[in-house]
Amino acid sequence: MSNFYEERTTMIAARDLQEFVPFGRDHCKHHPNALNLQLRQLQPASELWSSDGAAGLVGSLQEVTIHEKQKESWQLRKGVSEIGEDVDYDEELYVAGNMVIWSKGSKSQALAVYKAFTVDSPVQQALWCDFIISQDKSEKAYSSNEVEKCICILQSSCINMHSIEGKDYIASLPFQVANVWPTKYGLLFERSASSHEVPPGSPREPLPTMFSMLHPLDEITPLVCKSGSLFGSSRVQYVVDHAMKIVFLNTDPSIVMTYDAVQNVHSVWTLRRVKSEEENVVLKFSEQGGTPQNVATSSSLTAHLRSLSKGDSPVTSPFQNYSSIHSQSRSTSSPSLHSRSPSISNMAALSRAHSPALGVHSFSGVQRFNISSHNQSPKRHSISHSPNSNSNGSFLAPETEPIVPELCIDHLWTETITNIREKNSQASKVFITSDLCGQKFLCFLVESQLQLRCVKFQESNDKTQLIFGSVTNIPAKDAAPVEKIDTMLVLEGSGNLVLYTGVVRVGKVFIPGLPAPSLTMSNTMPRPSTPLDGVSTPKPLSKLLGSLDEVVLLSPVPELRDSSKLHDSLYNEDCTFQQLGTYIHSIRDPVHNRVTLELSNGSMVRITIPEIATSELVQTCLQAIKFILPKEIAVQMLVKWYNVHSAPGGPSYHSEWNLFVTCLMNMMGYNTDRLAWTRNFDFEGSLSPVIAPKKARPSETGSDDDWEYLLNSDYHQNVESHLLNRSLCLSPSEASQMKDEDFSQNLSLDSSTLLFTHIPAIFFVLHLVYEELKLNTLMGEGICSLVELLVQLARDLKLGPYVDHYYRDYPTLVRTTGQVCTIDPGQTGFMHHPSFFTSEPPSIYQWVSSCLKGEGMPPYPYLPGICERSRLVVLSIALYILGDESLVSDESSQYLTRITIAPQKLQVEQEENRFSFRHSTSVSSLAERLVVWMTNVGFTLRDLETLPFGIALPIRDAIYHCREQPASDWPEAVCLLIGRQDLSKQACEGNLPKGKSSVTQVLSSDVPSGTETEEEDDGMNDMNHEVMSLIWSEDLRVQDVRRLLQSAHPVRVNVVQYPELSDHEFIEEKENRLLQLCQRTMALPVGRGMFTLFSYHPVPTEPLPIPKLNLTGRAPPRNTTVDLNSGNIDVPPNMTSWASFHNGVAAGLKIAPASQIDSAWIVYNKPKHAELANEYAGFLMALGLNGHLTKLATLNIHDYLTKGHEMTSIGLLLGVSAAKLGTMDMSITRLLSIHIPALLPPTSTELDVPHNVQVAAVVGIGLVYQGTAHRHTAEVLLAEIGRPPGPEMEYCTDRESYSLAAGLALGMVCLGHGSNLIGMSDLNVPEQLYQYMVGGHRRFQTGMHREKHKSPSYQIKEGDTINVDVTCPGATLALAMIYLKTNNRSIADWLRAPDTMYLLDFVKPEFLLLRTLARCLILWDDILPNSKWVDSNVPQVVQIEYFLSEMLGTRSVFGFWNTRNYTYWLSIPHLKL
Fold first, then answer.
1. What b/e readout covers 1226-1237, taking b as 16+ CB neighbours within 10 angstroms?
2. Which of 288, 844, 861, 1023 could join 897 in a cystine, given CB atoms 3.0 to 4.6 angstroms apart?
3. ∠1242-1248-1253 over CA atoms, to 5°?
4. pLDDT per residue over 653-670, tens digit each?
5. Is the preceding omega at residue 253 within 30 degrees of 0, hence cis?
């Protein structure tokens, strides 16, 4: 039992055992193609013959097979997303019959079909292959957009290629293919060898056996071989040896492994592009002219191919016939023998414009290799054997062009030829694996000798070739690589599954749920009379050993969910499996760290090999230690750790660190059982659950162990060592003192352990990992765990500065006193102190702080590939703070020291090199360089968020500068880093083909007007949707706004007809509802004008499209029209006048200021129909707001004004005034003065000017003289605010609008001048406006128009007082605009709301609103964005009334309280606000 336990402890437990069945197998049963055979069987033979002719009969006979089960095959690979990133699932390519199923799924097996293909003939092989689209023939690494990912399906006579973008290619095969391989450059074909093929004569060379095709639209070209010393002198020739077969091909590195069946040896070749000199050799080019020398005769290959294509080949052909069913019944879809598929001819011209296949005749590419007739139809046969078709005829004219090879294999290595070599020693499986230290091995399995031969290889110093070492033989029946953990699984002949890393044995693999073949029993059991189930259909795991359950085992396969039963039944029963034969038959489909085990009964299970570590902290520490140790010791260390970590019942994620610390310290020589802080590690369960004792029943009363557990807990130790504990003079408990006394004796280290001599180097790299983790805010818990290990090592190595450094970082975790393990002074000399070890601890925080202060600091040490954050921070600080731009291009930076294993010679200059604080360029350029450089090294926003804030502050500052001024040519990653996702999407759009937007614009403009949809004439179809999609890319708000602002469609009038409503009343109800909805419709142009502002550049030959203002409705469910013109309800007169005016304004505001328009175009837009005159009036006003109305000729202005159309005059006057804003233009002033009687001389002729036109002219005067404080204009406007009504009907109608316009105009003339109205002190403007606002006696009218106002009005009796209902709004707004933002308290107090209920009754609510608004405009700086400021503008009396109404639960108390009650409530102290 002890031997068994020792073997058990070195076992590695596989995980995630699941039954495996290829997903494509089940999918093929339900695929539509499976019905074809059944339908043919149901159809009578006569119908088959009559419907399809001979093809039907031949096709039906071809589908009849002797074997009932179809031949199937599949392959798995690690999932690859469409953008090229690795994803954590498997992809399966399943082949059966004529079908190929490509499926994707989870870690265990595929779960969903991605693509399914059905071809005409049985599939011989299917594979993934990446073709290079670029025509560049260099050996560079191509980006993802230069590679076309395809599925290749090999049939007997053609190969189908389907790209993931949806492109389909079909290439005819001029020879029978034995095998096809995916390469780095394209496809590699092996021509099928035939015993009937006879060399056609001594002068001719044999045909090549290997060919390549770099793209589906390229020709198939022969492969060139450059042999080395194996064949004597180095020579270049085609691959013509039929004995050389490819057994393995790899893409990275690009190598090919072949097997020579004659010499029985394997060789390795590098696959590369052919060089020009090698091209010349095989094509026999002359060195002088560079042209072929009599190609038709000297080039034996080309001549031989020509003669064979003419029909000179032997009668017996090794090629499979192209069946009649393909050439007749499926002639439209099947590929032709002498041309590529017609469906891709245009694609060839587009995708491969320089393809060599395009320069020759369509059949030339195939006939070059067409070495036998294909038993074609008699007509085609007679053509190919025509006596006129000789080598000089026109039929073979395209054949004169030679075949240019594309790829070449260059010899690298051949295994040693031994005297004893079996005939059939070809490798059945070949793969490349690497050990835990990165050393690569080429492994090939020779099944006949049960050997796995491993060849170590590495790149040369100049990275140009591979150097192969010696061969190591490992006894094996099967093997497969486990790429993720750099190991390989080996199936030994005894049936054991063993894990190797390189050629070093790691341990046996224990599979829960499967019996171990190495176990034997003491008493012999009878052999079962029935063999194992030979079923081909999968069974559940509990039934995989169904026969063994009844005959041999009591409980051989427990359920997977109960692991305790598994161990008991598996190891405590005396039974054997050795008699029943090897249980695991083979290993296949390795992906990541998952493999499939094929069992001897035909079933398959898929297992997962555990990773090296699951904790990020443990992974980082292992990488650092592995980097610093010699490779041999590093492998031994990792193997020991992997055995401990991956043992059955291993640790959980949380206890993995404790297990790592224990394992590492044991390998350093520590006795972790006696060390205080490691003795009490909790591993959350026994490491050996097989012999784990039963748990004792917990005691309800407790015991002394509970108290000891609390004293040994981390919480107690943290509180005990806390600074507050010492300041309060709290003494530790007695138990802990006794504990310290028990462990006060010194412990010594064992110097014979594996890592004893490397303790200083391991400590230093772990310290660098500690500094690296400090730069990640998510690794706080990991730092606390690591600092305990570092403190113990620092104390034992007597490194006081390091202990002090850790104590300053974590004073609560690091105890001032602790257990010290002494190191024998005699053994200290055996410790290896590396040259990079420093007595002072490197600190990234201190380094950054010194840089910010401008102090000198030595270069910071870092581990390449591990401490990347430290490197990033150091270089970013050096670039942005110190201004050193050379480090972006120079790898060897003076600010970093690269830690290496070999002792490095530190130059004195480098040690003494101190950098100074300097700024060589501007901050913006440094910020741009920093952001671009950080993006190039893979730095993202997520990394920035996990950096400590102080460290990330310079980087955030650089991002802030770049965000304000981004460059237009930055890639998408830079835009994402600086937070400009709008620019990142624009960068993505920039990758699209040029001219896409212009093409769509041309197409949209070419659409005839008769086919335009209703959505296109809503006035918003000229928006730049591409820009708006960049600004608002996350939702559909633009479409919603457009839908809400459209006014061209009828509105929906949804009214329910109740039973008591008659039809007439129901119609009136719908029209009333429509009248309400029309108010919203008529307001929509204002919003549309803001939405479409400056979005349109008009065409000079086309009028401006003005959207229709539709005031009709549609009533569901019959969608009947509802109109306001039926006369059933009263509609306000001229309701649509101003709505149409604003609709024209919105249409005119679309025109951009930079548009090229002239007076002729403005007149050209004049409508022909009178009902559109209001919209055109608004259009003229919009042109003035845009500044375009200044181009309108004076003659045209006179023409518009003399027409007498009121709305046109209003729009024109406002437009020309806005266009001349603040200019005091005299021509515009004269134009406006004609329409204002107050600006005309008293003796002038009275003109009949409409009142609304006068109002527009007054506002226009304010616009033209805005901000000028012109005295005469201000005086006139001040008098016009209080203009009294004249005799008869003069100035008696709509006085309020005129007074308000005069007030607004006065405010614009004196805008913001306040009390600095120079030359107008005698006018007393503020006092006069205050009088207009609050009322009083009317002043005597002065000026030239005083005679007009002597006669009183006969209709309106106002007396001598001012009518504040007319003058108050204009005066209030004028006062607000004159004192805008002046913060004049005295003027603002005039506008304060009354503070008593009595005075409030004298002010209209609308006037009170204007006063409050005006006061806030004057006290501009007092405006605050909070509710307190809002409440300060509410009178106190109103606040009290509101409070009382809320308290008493009444809606309002105005009018219900007399003065006495009000005074009582006001006297209450707590009610005073």
1. eebbebbbbbbb
2. 861
3. 100
4. 668 898 999 999 999 988
5. yes
Cβ contacts of 1174 within 8 Å, gap of 6 or more: 1136, 1137, 1138, 1140, 1141, 1144, 1207
Tell me the β-bridge partners of 113.
103
What is the C-alpha separation between 1150 and 1104, in angstroms, rounded? 10
Taking only the tens place, the pLDDT of each residue in 498-529 is 999 999 999 999 888 776 664 433 333 333 33
**Is-contact 80 87, C-beta < 8 A?**
yes
101-105, 180-184, 1156-1160: least confident range = 101-105
Among 131, 198, 136, which Cα is nearest to 162's? 131
Residue 697 buriedness (CB in 10 A; 0-12 / 13-18 / 19+)? exposed
Three-state DSSP class for 300? Answer: helix
Task: Give the residue among 34, 36, 60, 64 at the shortest CA–CA distance from 46.
Answer: 60
pLDDT tens by residue, 588-639: 999 988 999 998 888 899 999 999 998 999 999 999 999 999 999 999 999 9
Report d(CA 246, CA 179) in Å as an integer. Answer: 9
Q: Is the pTM of this model over 0.70?
A: no
Residue 1005's CB: how many other CB atoms inside 10 A?
A: 8
Residue 283 has pLDDT above 70, yes or no: yes
Place of tokens 């093409």: 999
Q: Which of 1359, 1264, 1336, 1346 lies closest to 1305 in space, CA to CA?
A: 1264
Rounded CA-CA distance 868/1267 in Å is 63
Judge whether 1177 and 1146 are in contact, CB under 8 Å. no
Bridge-based pairing state of the strands 821-822 and 747-748? parallel
CA 1079, chain centre distance (Å): 47
Contact 1177, 1143 (CB under 8 A): no
Place of tokens 């294909």: 374
DSSP state of 1151: B
Residue 102 has φ and ψ, to the nearest 5°, of -105, 115
- What distance in Å separates the CA atoms of residue 217 and residue 194, rounded to the nearest whole number? 28
Query: What is the rounded CA–CA span in Å between residue 590 and residue 606?
Result: 10
Spatial distance between the Cα atoms of 263 and 824, rounded to a whole number of angstroms: 61
Instruction: Please check whether residue 1348 is in contact with residue 1291, taking contact to mean a CB–CB distance below 8 angstroms.
Output: no
Helices 631-645 and 656-668 meet at what angle, rounded to 10? Answer: 140
CA distance 487 to 501: 4
Structure token pair of residue 926: 């440094």
Query: Which pair of structure tokens corresponds to residue 561?
Result: 């969910």
Distance CA 1259, CA 989 (A): 48
The pair of three-digit structure tokens given for residue 706, joined into one six-digit string: 């509970």
Closest CA to 1390 of 758, 1155, 1378, 731: 1378
Specify the higher pLDDT residue, 971 or 1164: 1164
* DSSP code per residue over 1259-1325: HHHHHHTTT---HHHHHHHHHHHTPPP-STTTT-SSHHHHHHHHHHHHHHHTTTTTT--TT-GGGTH
Kindly provide the b/e burial profile for residues 1262-1274, where b requires at least 16 CB atoms within 10 angstroms of the residue's own CB. bbbbbebbbeebb
- Quick one: pLDDT at residue 565? 34
- How far is the CA of 773 from the CAs of 593, 782, 846, 877, in angstroms? 28, 8, 15, 18
Distance CA(155)–CA(1034), nearest Å, equals: 47
Q: Of all residues in the chain, what percent carry a pLDDT higher than 70?
A: 70
- Integer angstrom CA distances of residue 563 from 83, 511, 568: 41, 12, 9
Asked if residue 458 lies in contact with residue 502, where contact means CB atoms within 8 angstroms, the answer is no
Length of the chain: 1473
The answer to whether residues 648 and 690 touch, using CB atoms and an 8 Å cutoff, is yes
